[in-house]
Amino acid sequence: MAGKKIITICQSGGEFVTDKDGSLSYTGGDAHAIDVDQQTRFNDFKLEIAEMWNCSIATMSIKYFLPGNRKTLITVSNDKDLKRMINFHKDSVTVDVYVVAGDTVTHDVSNMPASRSSRTTFSEAVVLPDAPVDAPMDVVVDAPMDVVVEAPDITNLDVPNAANAAADAPIDIPIASRLPFSVLSNSNGGKNHKDSKSWENAITGVDQRFNSVHEFRDALHKYSIAHGFAYRFKKNDPHRVTVMCKAEDCPWRIHASRLSTTQLFCIKRMTPTHTCEGGVVTAGYRATRSWVASIIKEKLKESPSYKPKDIAEDIRREYGIQLNYSQAWRGKEIAKEQLQGSFKDAYNQLPFFCEKIRETNPGSFATFATKEDSSFHRLFVSFHASLSGFQQGCRPLLFLDSTPLNSKYQGTLLTATAMDGDDGVFPVAFAVVDVESDDNWHWFLLELKSSVSTTRSITFVADRQKGLRESLSEIFENAYHGYCLRYLSEKFKRDLKGKFSHEVMRLMVADFYSAAYAPRLEGFQRCSESIKGISVEAYNWVIQSAPEHWANVLFGGTRYNHMTANFGEMFYSWVSEANDLPITQMVDVLRGKMMELIYTRRVESNQWLTRLTPSVEEKLQKETLKARSLEVIFSRGSTFEVRGDSIEVVDIDHWDCSCKGWQITGLPCSHAIAVFECTGRSPYDYCSRYFTTESYRLTYTESIHPISNIDRLTLKESANTTVTVTPPPTRRPPGRPKNKQTGLKEVVKRQLQCSRCKSIGHNKTTCKESS
After folding, report:
1. Using an 8 Å Cβ cutoff, are 309 and 156 in contact?
2. How many CB atoms lie within 10 A of CB 38?
3. Helix 308-319 and helix 289-302: axis angle, to 10°?
4. Cα(74)–Cα(98) distance, rounded to whole angstroms?
5. Which of 167, 366, 410, 411 is deepest in the core (most CB within 10 A)?
6. What is the Cα–Cα distance from 337 to 163, expressed in whole angstroms?
7. Taking a C-beta distance cutoff of 8 angstroms, is the pair 126, 175 a contact?
8. pLDDT of residue 156
């Protein structure tokens, strides 16, 4: 049984007025009656109302009062709410229902109880600016035409990722934008923007043709802004569009439809005369994201950092339409995709893109892999100029690191970088992967080995994570794995967190670093014992963390005293500029940065006149100054004794000094230089060849070549490939992206320590020990 029917008196177009006792009354507007019962579905009820007033079902809100309570409005948003409303009024024949269309503005009503429904919507109301939030509001129903409404400030809000929402979905514009353009432009001295003047003829009349329905809608919107009126759609689909003036009884009307067998859209009928005389302007313009995009596209092309806040302010000032931050942000997303191309399409262009890299840069490696469902998995790129530069002029030392990408489909960038002879970062290879995992690192190292064809034993500096450690030993058999000291010290602090005070932790981390850099065994042992004196647990952690992979004195490879892997920071800065680009364009930005880097350093090195690179030359001169105060005692053969603050033994034939500085850095120490000066030898003959200007120039001999028209790649160009690549399932979460933190965190969060018992985790007040 359906049960008793209740007649809902649906009212819209009026306004709420707050009486002296705080109760609300509704005046004005139209009313229609609809009968409902317990079996009525909310969506059917809402649809009938939407058809009755020709309003959008997506933005419409339905409210009512509880019996005997005219102070609180209750919102109906689902079937349960509708049934509750019927039950609450089962003793009544009718119930008043208030329909709030999407083009109204919501304001807080003073003196209203705080509840879920304590926000009342005023249609056709203008709130005067600069009023306190909690102050009673003066509502002006018929605002004079010379009123200028200032736009509120737009704060930087976190906007959810909604780039895939329909570009032509309407944006509800706040009340300040609903005055005629000529009124709103009073803030600019009464002068209309030049673009809006040109929009006056965007619609010319019957038989005017457009390339698509979207072009027609865009022209219609510009036309309405230029002439200062609002409209509503009676029919709106890809084949037919009928538009009427929003003012009641105004005869202005347009009907357009698609010409058969073509994509052209043509105006068939038009009544160009208005009788409303601007009386409907407070009903609201309806903007679309695609319209906002079309307005800002050219400026965004010139200024990629164009902020949504500035977009909204410019559109308000120049066109008289007020957007909030979210609307401006979504319009910018559409404009970016129009300028840069689709993120989704870019993945399908990867086969063609990799082919173009190999074609324009012979000897380069560019390969990708997909999952079983054809979604993107990983992409590896290494240019011939990078591989040649590493093999010809760089030390056999590679730093592995990763950084998260904040692009639409996220992902992670894996990097392999080297160091040139001037201690500058030299990019060798990189990969974009869907997630950072042991499997993806293993794949990256396999690709790296196939591209870096060298017989030299390579030393890697990287994190000590299990998957990376095992992959390195498996793929590069004769390589050495030096643990990144930065990652290791952060793990040291995490594992011992909460057990020591801030000051104690700082001292132990300093001893840990000193142990790692110590050139001789006694120095390493002394620093380790210092940690043991503070905590046996911390000492055991240090000894069990495989010091042979991170301590200079125990490490078997040659890392030239470089202890951390954060040489990928150059990549981080490059990626931060390209995060908002589709994957093919992001990779091409990296290519462009590398191309510029190689060219710039090549030109700079051509001006050098020294035998060693500038930074190494400076280091050698400092050691030379120290050598002048040292005493050299000669002996037979190539061995010498050098006395200063300590006594060291130098063997010049084996490039060895007992201080170990020569072996660790590759540069002669002050003790060795003292011997050279006494024997008439040149210290330049005993420097590693990687520090010479000649090797540096060999590093930057080859060039990276551009890939033409990468910003205009289309699916048609990649249609010949049989491989389909779709975006990965990961998506960027809402909110502001978190930046990757780099560098050693010297500051450790201060721990609470009791001044009585010296324990951690409480203070003197809560100490349980007796005083």
Report:
1. yes
2. 15
3. 110
4. 10
5. 411
6. 9
7. yes
8. 39
**What distance in Å separates the CA atoms of residue 452 and residue 400, rounded to the nearest whole number?**
14
Is the Cβ–Cβ distance between 394 and 409 less than 8 Å?
no
Which DSSP letter does residue 198 get?
H
Phi and psi, residue 612, nearest 5°: -105, 165
- With CA atoms as reference, report the closest residue to 91 among 74, 66, 62: 66
3-state secondary structure 512-571: HHHHHHCCCHHHHHHHHHHHHHHCHHHHHHHHCCCHHHCCCCCCCCCCCCCCCCHHHHHH
Q: Residue 648: phi, psi to the nearest 5?
A: -120, 150
The reported pLDDT for the residue numbered 107 is: 37
Do you know the residue count of the chain? 771
Specify the residue for token string 């490939």: 721
Q: The tokens 């970088």 sit on which residue?
A: 417
**What residue ranges of the chain have pLDDT lower than 50?**
1, 103-192, 194, 279-284, 714-716, 718-719, 739-750, 771
Q: What is the distance of C-alpha 661 from the center of its chain? A: 44
Name the 3-class secondary structure at 97.
strand
Helix, strand or coil, per DSSP, at residue 274: coil
Q: Is 672 helix (H, G, I), strand (E, B) or coil?
A: helix
Tell me which DSSP letter residue 395 carries.
Answer: -
| SS3 state of residue 298 | helix
Question: How far apart, in whole angstroms, are the C-alpha atoms of residue 574 and residue 568?
Answer: 10
**Distance (Å, whole) CA 268 – CA 235:** 14
Alpha-helix runs per DSSP H in 640-750 = 661-665, 670-679, 693-699
Q: Is this prediction's pTM over 0.70?
A: no
Among 536, 538, 537, residue whose Cα is nearest residue 512: 538
Beta pairing class for 209-210 and 265-271? antiparallel
Paired tokens of 624: 């030379």
- Alpha helix (H) residue ranges in 285-383: 289-302, 308-319, 325-340, 343-348, 350-360
Phi, psi of 257 (to 5 degrees): -150, 165
3-state secondary structure of 605: helix
Return the structure tokens found at 451: 């591209």
Confirm if 724 and 402 have CB atoms less than 8 A apart: no
Joined tokens for residue 723: 């491989």
- Residue pair 725/738 in contact (Cβ under 8 Å)? The answer is no
Kindly state the tokens that stand for 427. 């990019």
pLDDT score, position 139 = 35
